[in-house]
Amino acid sequence: MLHNAVMSNLMAQGMTTSSYAVLALLDLKPWTGYELTQQAQRSLRYAWPKSERLLYSEPKKLVELGYAKTHKELSGNRSRNVYEITPEGREALAKWTSTRTQPPRIEVEALLRLLFADHGSSEDLFRSLDELEEDINEHHQAIVELMASYLGGGHPFPQRTHLSVLFATFQIDIFKTIERWIEFARDEIAEWPTTQDLGMTPRTETITRLLANDQTPLNK
Amino acid sequence: MLHNAVMSNLMAQGMTTSSYAVLALLDLKPWTGYELTQQAQRSLRYAWPKSERLLYSEPKKLVELGYAKTHKELSGNRSRNVYEITPEGREALAKWTSTRTQPPRIEVEALLRLLFADHGSSEDLFRSLDELEEDINEHHQAIVELMASYLGGGHPFPQRTHLSVLFATFQIDIFKTIERWIEFARDEIAEWPTTQDLGMTPRTETITRLLANDQTPLNK
DNA sequence: TACACTATGCTGCACAATGCAGTAATGTCA
DNA sequence: TGACATTACTGCATTGTGCAGCATAGTGTA
After folding, report:
1. Which residues of B are less than 8 Å from A23 in CB distance?
2. Which of A80, A99, B76, B125 shows the greatest Cβ crowding within 10 Å of its Cβ?
3. With bands split at pLDDT 50, 70 and 90, how would you rate the model's confidence at A6?
4. Quick check: B114 and A174 CB within 8 A?
């Protein structure tokens, strides 16, 4: 066991952005582990997608660090862990806001497949774009429906609606951009006789010239 | 040691998307480990951002699986590992193209901070947006310059220019969208008297209504 | 009423991936 | 000749994922 003085020096240890995300949820109200995983997957998915497994582990770490406390609740023969933020936790959260924001990270396997499309068929490439579209459409539709529910007063924390809506604006704009790009890409690829060795075609040169002047070939 | 027959059943084991990304690079030409990390970080960063550490490990795994072979090259007192794809590697790559494309994954810490901006100051929120803008601007500028270099014949694999340029169209479109959203968000937040408890203001309701109809409040 | 199926509510384990420190040789400029 | 950047990696601790497993509670249905 360590002295308190030593402990406080180690406090920041092990606190990842994911830890702060969970801590921020606990700042809203106490949650059970299960609720935390569900809530984090629904509301944070688009800003900070993390696995259920991690979301079960984070609150335990917060308790170890003294940023949360926990107790077991019983309903019948079954128990669940309830987590609650501590004053130290609130302090840690406040300090976090003044640290440097991590750069964004965008992983799109469909783009990787596009980059290496020349050792596959056009069909494979089209299918990959279809799959990307499918995934984006799903998220897009979900967030549009969420906004409709907010209009009916469906926000779980009504006083925080202004934040959620500004956040949703980002999502919808990104999704629309990706959907428009997919259509554009399909039209381009449809003109290709093959995926291989086309190089700098006249059409590609036109696009390159636009991009080099920081313009986009996408209509609207 | 396992029999060949058993080995081949285990072949797919341990092959991640990152493994296929490196294998696809090896399909273009043989590289040294160091070149592979540099090339992957420069060209794949925006589709599949992976650490240098991983990019050193992947080719070793490919050799173990029989998808690549390696030899040491000496220049003076110093050696480096050269990796080359095998026929089995090419086969594995071909099979990969017919598998399901992974859904995209977008991590933006600045959005997480926006979502929880109500336990911080407006200044913190503005700073977070500035930091996001800084990161995006950097990437945006880099890719515009890359396109200019392609016009001068600077593509390392000229016959693949059509793929790189279609890929770059995606990047530039996304970057422009994010930059426009940041400006929009700044204007909105500037109108807020505080970050807390504003809830469904008339302005927020207008935006929510637009989003629920799958429209965007962003001009242009 | 028995049965299946879904939702709740987790934990353990193997493995994927990151970040950082460390090591060592070569090239470059002042 | 000395400092510093670049080339060329490896080891290790820690973060994060995916899957399997386990147990209870509720819900529909034949």
Report:
1. none
2. B125
3. very low
4. no
